[in-house]
Amino acid sequence: MTWTILVLVVGILLFLFGGMLLPKGDEKKPSAGRIVAKKCISVIAIILISGSMCRLYMPYYLTAINPAIVQEMVNGMQEQQQAEKNKQIRKFVRAEGEKMMRDAPVLGNRDAKKTIYVWTDFSCPFCRRVHGEIERVLANRDDTRVVIKNFSIHGALSDAPAKAVIAAKLQDPAKAAELTDMLMTRDFYTQEDLQDQSTIGEKVEANVMKMAKEIGLDTEKLKADMNGDVVARELRNVRDLAQRFEISGTPFLIIGEQAFPGAIPADQIESALNDAE
């Protein structure tokens, strides 16, 4: 702002007194060179004044008169950034899709042509909401599978459920999907459990084991596998991909060639699937 005002003052001074910078000559019969020089100084002065006035007026125009333009510019930049991010995600998923789903629980038709990748946390209310929307989508189509990437970001409330569904896949992929749905639709800790934070992890794991036993999983094997190499590898893969894709929270969905941070409704999921190859 200071430099803009300084340029404006210089422009005004040039316009008013620029002729004084030229060598003195016959004012009654000025030479052609002197006339051209004076006009050049005037043009430069006008350019400086006009440019400075525009710079001074533009912030006022954008913030006071037409602030919607600023929002449009921000939206445009965000759209460009998201498009570039989607491009990089699409390229990676096409090359590494099989690796991304190797150890992860899968919902729906595991041999389907269309895939939804969802970074989720069982203790996240928005993740539970989007799980319900995904279930609505799966109920109406068999061409889609959902790869669950368990992004354990809420500590003790998230760790045991995340590990359990990954470990369950080693016993039975169908039961892993069933356990995923059960953990997303039923409470696996109570307000009473939360009162003692030092034991919440143990209580959550015990409740998860009850659900696992309910659907017929071998809970002793499940506990062993939860601390095994496959689960550790999958959780590491989830974190690495979250860093690559700049995922800072859940839920986060990748559908075809589009990325969706946050909970989205079933119709938007359907639309993205229809656009996917």
Spans with pLDDT under 50 lasting ≥5 residues?
A: none
The CATH superfamily of the largest domain is identified as Glutaredoxin
Main pleated-sheet profile:
5 strands, mixed
Looking at the structure, the CATH topology of the largest domain is Glutaredoxin
Please tell me about this protein's structure:
This protein is α+β, with helices and mostly antiparallel strands and 277 residues long. It has two domains: 2-66; 76-275, Glutaredoxin, CATH 3.40.30.10. It contains ten helices and five strands, in the order H-H-H-E-E-H-E-H-H-H-H-H-E-E-H. It has helices spanning 2-17, 32-65, 68-101, 125-139, 156-171, 173-185, 200-214, 219-226, 229-244, 266-275, and strands at 106-108, 114-120, 144-150, 252-255, 258-261. A five-stranded mixed beta sheet has the order 1-3-2-4-5, with helices on both faces. Helix 5 runs antiparallel to helix 6 (173-185) and helix 5 crosses helix 8.
How would you summarize the topology of this molecule?
Blueprint: H1 2-17, H2 32-65, H3 68-101, E1 106-108, E2 114-120, H4 125-139, E3 144-150, H5 156-171, H6 173-185, H7 200-214, H8 219-226, H9 229-244, E4 252-255, E5 258-261, H10 266-275
Parallel strand pairs: 2-3
Antiparallel strand pairs: 1-3, 2-4, 4-5
Short structural summary:
It contains ten helices and five strands; from the N terminus they run H-H-H-E-E-H-E-H-H-H-H-H-E-E-H. It has 277 residues and is of the alpha+beta class. Helix 1 (2-17) packs antiparallel against helix 2 (32-65).
Features:
single chain, 5 strands, 277 residues, 2 domains, 5-stranded mixed sheet, alpha+beta, elongated, Glutaredoxin
